Amino acid sequence: MIVILEANIDKNGEAYRHLLATLTRLPNVQVRTHEEVGAQQVLTELYLIGDTASVSLEDIRNLPGVDRVVRVSEEYRVLGRHRDDKRSTRFEYNGVEFSQDSLHVFAGLCAVDTPEHVEAMLRVLRDNGQVCTRMGAYKPRTNPYSFQGHGRNCLPYVFDLAGKYGIKVIAMEVTHESHVAEIDAALEATGRATGVMLQIGTRNTQNFELLKIVGRQPTYPVLLKRGFGITLEESLNAAEYLASEGNRKVIFGLRGMKSHFGDPHRNMVDFAHVPVVKRLTRMPVCIDPSHSIGSRALAPDGMLDVHHAVAQGVIAGANMILVDFHPAPAKALVDGPQALRLEELPHFLADVAVVREAYEKRRSLARQNNFA
Ligand code: PEP
Ligand code: MN
């Protein structure tokens, strides 16, 4: 059961103390406090965990300080969409708003290689009005002899340059808790010139200890990639690990699934699951066409398979696109074959805009009817 309190409730006030005392007296029920600090208000939610079946919704709702009460199913308690649950899907980070209605493009380098390539990438993003990017410093590689990323050594110039070009959020994968500390220290050293969205890659979706550590930090939002060989339910539970530790700023990433059918694509594109994740949870949903497709294969209609995959995700309501670009794909140290070229960014953005508009029209059309 989730007890949502009146906004900006005074934690030292009588109402709050009385409420907490009443709830903690409930037998076999634990109370966990969760706070969401927004630009305008602080929202406090109390999670009642344990034997709540006999607790009356009505009694709790009538306690002073309570705005509303939601009885949750067992699944995805914090991130899930429950019956009569009108909680928002929105959160803000470093001036950028994320929700199940927004759409942001995170075009950038799969892996940071040189300062020149980073700067060229960031310049073209700024010139095209973009404030988000992706830049991998820590690369989990299948082959131990492959380039593993420059790690913390590249962070100072990546963050400085990002600040210089007005980038507000960089999606950056972490594979170990030390990476979070390194990112935090490097950002601090640049005076927080930019911001970071911590990315948990598909190989770490069920690295529960990493999830707990990343979930415990309140500073950075998290992009959790779906595990490429596990069920959707298992991946959504992994996201819930982050939230159960306190971090509700979680975006769920679809990046294709491993299949054994002689794939034309690196992974089987799973973007039809965008609305499924939005229905089951309140997370904004990201699509990663680059790691799904894995090449620059061209369709006879003149569009790359990557463009088609993006369109499939956006027309289904995706909220974020993570996509590999590179100034010189042939020289990229990781995933060059799937990278789009910098001069292709305007086309990419224009194509996304066309499809987003189509999605919005479809949504208005659907709202005129009642499918319920
Ligand atoms: C990536 O985004 O660079 C990446 C490695 O993705 P995934 O974890 O989906 O393979
Ligand atoms: Mn990659």
How would you portray this structure in words?
The structure is a single chain. With 372 residues, the protein is of the alpha/beta class. The chain folds into two domains: 2-71, Alpha-Beta Plaits (2-Layer Sandwich), CATH 3.30.70; 93-368, TIM Barrel, CATH 3.20.20. Helices cover 33% and strands 19% of the residues. It is built from eleven helices and 15 strands. It has helices at residues 14-24, 57-61, 115-127, 155-164, 177-189, 208-216, 232-244, 274-280, 289-293, 305-315, 345-368; strands spanning 2-5, 29-37, 42-50, 66-70, 91-93, 96-98, 104-108, 132-134, 169-173, 196-200, 222-225, 250-254, 285-287, 320-326, 340-341. Strands 7, 8, 9, 10, 11, 12, 13, 14 and 15 form a nine-stranded parallel beta sheet that branches. Helix 7 (232-244) links the parallel strand 11 and strand 12 (250-254). Helix 3 runs parallel beside helix 4 and helix 6 (208-216) packs parallel to helix 7. The longest helix is centred in the last third of the chain and has 24 residues, at 345-368. The radius of gyration is 22 Å and the shape is globular. The chain starts with a strand and ends with a helix. Residues 110, 291, 334-335 line the site of manganese (II) ion.
